[in-house]
Structure formats: structure tokens, C-alpha cells
Specification:
By secondary structure, this protein is of the alpha/beta class. Helices cover 35% and strands 18% of the residues.
Length: 184
């Protein structure tokens, strides 16, 4: 049987971190040292609990995409990568010249490690413009799906209504929603 001459592209959606973290959901009476220990080894995919982060992830997963988190402090982070709790916004990182706003070579190395620079990978950003700006400055290629949008309402609408065909011209979903196939 001949092989498909056009490999299926891998779709990766970049979603933002959030100010809200899982630590905030523990009651105040819990032993904070125990909570801090749990948080130090918590996968990034469980750490962030903000509404737009969860919304963007839900829709990325609806598309069958792999999800990578863009953290203001840590850069590009896999869902299963353990992170400690922190409290730094992208604006603070810009002011302090730290994190994503400062270390573009680290961001490129993370992109390489996560396969975002592979030729058969399509990277789409569901990111606010400050995050997208720093990824572009780092030389990481991506489609900025929220470019030009006027605010959170429009962000949510664009994320909710996007299809795989919008992101990968000529692509459509196979019967299994996790698979992408090129239309012939």
C-alpha cells in the first residue's frame, strides 16, 4: 500500500497562562507548606485556572490540537511539565526584564524541544497581543488567531468559532476528532 505523500500536519495551539492558580482554591486553613509542596510538582496543565486559559484550552482540545502554555515567567510549557506556583504578569516580566519578555533564546530552545519548529507542525496562538509580541520577537513562527481583535469578548468569539479548516487550509477533521487529514 503506498504511503500518503502528504503527512498529516500536527496542530499546536498556544494558550496563555493565567493569574489564577490552583493554590488559590485551597482553603485558608490548609497547611501552606503542604500546599506549597504539592504546587512545586503540579503539572502546568493543572496549575492555571483562569477563565480565558480554561476557555482557550477547551477549544484547542475541541480542535484535536496539542496544547502548549505560554507562561509570562517560564516561557513555553508543556501541559505535563511541573511548575511551582508564582505570581508574575507579562507586564511585570517586561518591567523586570525577566521571563518570556527577556529570554528569547530560551523561548526558541523551548519551541525546538516541544516540536513547534518542525516543518509538519502548524502553530496557532490564542494569545493576548503582549504574549504574541514576545513570541514573534523570539523568532517563533505562529499564526496569531487573535490579531486585531478588540478585547476579551472578541477573543472568546474567535476561539469558539474557529475550525481546523480555518487554521490549516485544506485540512478537515477525520472521523476521529484527534486526527487531521489533508483534503484532496
Amino acid at each position: 500500500m503506498p504511503k500518503n505523500p502528504c503527512p498529516k500536519p500536527r496542530l499546536v495551539v498556544l494558550v496563555p497562562c493565567s493569574g489564577a492558580k490552583a493554590l488559590e482554591h485551597y482553603p485558608a486553613g490548609d497547611d501552606r507548606r503542604t500546599v506549597a509542596t504539592i504546587m512545586a510538582t503540579m503539572p502546568a496543565g493543572e496549575l492555571y485556572t483562569g477563565s480565558f486559559h480554561r476557555y482557550a484550552r477547551h477549544h484547542a482540545e475541541r480542535l484535536g490540537a496539542d496544547v502548549v502554555i505560554v507562561s509570562a515567567l517560564h516561557g513555553l510549557v508543556a501541559l505535563d511539565e511541573p511548575l511551582g506556583a508564582y505570581n508574575r504578569t507579562i507586564v511585570e516580566c517586561e518591567r523586570l526584564e525577566t521571563g518570556l519578555a527577556r529570554n528569547y533564546s530560551l523561548a526558541r530552545a523551548q519551541a525546538r524541544r516541544l516540536g513547534l519548529l518542525d516543518p509538519d507542525t502548524v502553530v496557532v496562538a490564542f494569545l493576548p497581543k503582549r504574549y504574541a509580541h514576545h513570541l514573534a520577537a523570539a523568532g517563533i513562527p505562529f499564526v496569531d488567531h487573535l490579531a486585531g481583535s478588540a478585547g476579551i469578548g472578541e477573543h472568546r468569539n474567535r476561539v469558539a468559532t474557529v475550525t481546523v479548516g480555518d487554521l490549516i487550509p485544506g485540512a478537515e477533521l477525520d472521523e476521529a476528532p484527534q486526527q487531521l487529514a489533508l483534503a484532496v
